[in-house]
TrEMBL record:
Active site: 256, 284, 366
Domain of life per record: Bacteria
Species whose genome carries this gene: Streptomyces solincola
GO process terms (BP): proteolysis
Protein name: Serine protease
Length: 412
């Protein structure tokens, strides 16, 4: 998904939002974005690039840590608008989600093989951990989580989902994922096609390999790349997409936006770099090296809706947590994490290990940033619906991308 239509007015760097002129090239290629202090940031739905960074050797993905610095301004306002919270409620929720993310890893270690998954409850502000062994409950509660005893472990559910991944899904099957709260593999089918013979056959085969729960959805998913229509993101061929996150040496984005070796151009049609790696379908991730006067910064654009957001790490938000998305078509929107490890059945083929959200998106937003607080979560892949009537959107988790290509997230 991508596209942004904003005025390209030049302002001084000290004003907090300006475009400079590329030295020796006479072309405007960057702007400085102020987030508390002036931070250089690219004016696209993507994180900016760095001069000379294209030659930097990729570094191993870091172990995420919980950020203790205050969040960038404007995030609470955006959550209040999209999630129907008061500012005080949004602040309390962010604090509770940060605590839940820290508890999740602890509780998983305590549960061991009895672990059945976990989810954040916005009502109680607590993380709930499912376990198959009630004897683990006291230790998990001591770690700070609620407990639910279930029949199936996460390992059992993941095994069933992996078997379903091996089936060929018809177009009437939207996606499938492990739902820890339901303690089942949820298979989503398009309502209008639920009685199709091939859909019913797929559901029968899925049910034969493990616990399956069928749910209905309104539409089938699609990717959110778009033809070139002007705006301020990046372009490859006639496709416009959005940058996800800056990494040292380039940026990450969606794999369906381009293939390895393809050239990438910026908002002003100047050369940025090339796709160094890309995978789609199966996965939906890619990374682009940068140079030629572009550089990287740890910023996600707020598009004037909120101030630009600093990126301070990549701690994974739990199911149920709030999350926001930045893209060059629909700019800044927030919602909740609905599911993890979901297989999405696009017309081009299935994509695995995706995270589903209630955030809306549209064509041209593909590749854009999903962020929870100041923690990078992933890059926009696709979904259904739009930002007028609503819908759902999936993202490819950031830590998988960093690990796949040996990249290091650029953080503040």
């Amino acid at each position: 998904m991508s596209s942004r239509t904003s005025s390209r007015t030049s302002r001084s760097a000290s004003s907090g939002s300006s475009r400079g002129t590329r030295s020796g090239a006479g072309r405007s290629v960057h702007r400085a974005a102020r987030v508390g202090v002036a931070v250089a940031a690219l004016v696209g739905a993507y994180a900016t690039t760095a001069a000379g960074a294209a030659t930097a050797a990729p570094a191993p993905a870091p172990v995420p840590t919980v950020a203790e610095k205050p969040l960038s301004g404007g995030l609470v306002d955006a959550m209040s608008r999209d999630l129907g919270l008061t500012p005080a409620q949004a602040e309390r929720r962010l604090a509770a989600e940060t605590a839940a993310a820290a508890v999740e890893g602890k509780a998983k270690r305590v549960a061991g093989s009895a672990y059945g998954g976990s989810w954040f409850d916005s009502g109680s502000g607590k993380l709930t951990v499912a376990v198959t062994d009630g004897g683990k409950a006291a230790a998990i509660r001591a770690a700070g989580a609620e407990v639910r005893v279930v029949r199936h472990s996460e390992k059992r559910l993941d095994s069933a989902k992996a078997a379903i991944d091996g089936l060929t899904a018809p177009g009437g099957v939207s996606s499938w994922h492990v739902d820890p709260k339901a303690n089942s593999v949820v298979v989503n089918v398009v309502t209008a096609r639920k009685t199709d013979n091939d859909v019913r056959a797929f559901v029968r085969k899925a049910g034969a390999v493990g616990p399956v729960l069928v749910r209905e959805v309104a539409q089938a998913p699609q990717t959110f790349a778009a033809g070139t229509v002007g705006g301020d993101p990046y372009y490859t061929g006639n496709v416009r997409c959005s940058i996800g996150f800056s990494v040292h040496g380039g940026f990450v984005t969606a794999g369906h936006c381009g293939r390895a070796g393809q050239q990438v151009r910026g908002w002003d049609n100047s050369y940025i770099g090339n796709f160094q790696g890309s995978s789609f379908p199966g996965d939906d991730y890619a990374w682009v090296n940068v140079g030629s006067g572009w550089w990287t910064v740890p910023v996600v654009l707020g598009w004037g809706t909120v101030p630009d957001q600093l990126v301070r790490g990549s701690n994974e938000a739990p199911i149920g947590a709030s999350i926001c998305r930045s893209g060059s078509t629909t700019r800044w929107h927030c919602g909740r994490v609905l599911a993890k490890n979901e297989t999405v059945n696009y017309s081009q083929g299935a994509v695995h290990q995706m995270t589903k959200t209630s955030v809306c998106a549209q064509g041209g937003d593909s590749g854009g940033s999903f962020i929870s607080g100041d923690q990078a979560q992933g890059v926009t892949s696709g979904g259904w619906g739009n930002c007028t009537s609503g819908g759902e959107t999936w993202y490819q988790p950031i830590n998988e991308i960093l690990g796949r290509y040996g990249l290091r997230l650029h953080t503040a």
